[in-house]
Amino acid sequence: MSQLPSCETLLLESQGGVLHVTLNRPESRNAMSLGMVEELRAVFKAVRDDRDVRALVLCGAGGHFCAGGDIKDMAGARARAQAEGADAYRDLNRAFGALLEEAQSAPQVVIAVLEGAVLGGGFGLACVSDVAIAHINAKFGLPETSLGIIPAQIAPFVVKRIGLTQTRRLALTAARFDGREAERLGLVHFAESDAQALAERLSDVLEQVRQCAPGANALTKALLLATDSQPLSPLLDHAAGLFAAAVVGAEGVEGTMAFVQKRAPQWAE
């Protein structure tokens, strides 16, 4: 596995091809400080090209996922803005948007385990996950407008996740809702009733991920994300080339042979 960065706001644990990333500022319900943003970006960068890392699991310490942006950081940016102009606010906000872009495009499967507060920036992180698993009592919301600010960086990701109509309702009312409603909206894939059920669901999902070839997963994820922005015919041309290369590539050959020989492929052993 790649060398992981040293972190003060995150706990990192690698096990069986899975990197568990725990947001670790429980005293603030894991509010997203600039330091945490920078550390998360460093983690995603460190493992981006490492196919030994099959999945990243994001969770929070102390019973909460993430309560949004850190108000103290905003106060610090306010002080800098008074001295330097509005760019201090812009830079702080845009750094979080860059994190969301990098998390969404990570070649690995990104799994979010959501408990307690899932607000603002935490809501955004949930929206860029490939698989989201929530406790039924988790509290979701976009509280920004109730604070006189806007969900600037997360808005595009929320719209893509649950659609424009629902995003408008949630962003313009700052309504709170639970894990079952998050499942109904399509924000999360599973809503579980207790900690054991959460752990069992995560174990099941990770076992499913291990059945899939890591290189094929990375290419498939990039192809799926490209459907948002690429014209159809050129995208299908590109996909055909990817398919042809995959069939004769190492994973394609191994997967075909494993099927014929009625055995598990090497990546699933």
From TrEMBL:
Keywords annotated in UniProt: Isomerase
UniProt-recorded name of the protein: Enoyl-CoA hydratase/isomerase family protein
Keyword Isomerase: yes
Organism ancestry: Bacteria, Pseudomonadati, Pseudomonadota, Gammaproteobacteria, Pseudomonadales
Domain of life: Bacteria
UniProt xrefs under Pfam families: ECH_1 (PF00378)
A GO MF label: isomerase activity
Similarity remark: Belongs to the enoyl-CoA hydratase/isomerase family.
Annotated source species: Pseudomonas cavernicola
One GO BP annotation of this record: isoprenoid catabolic process
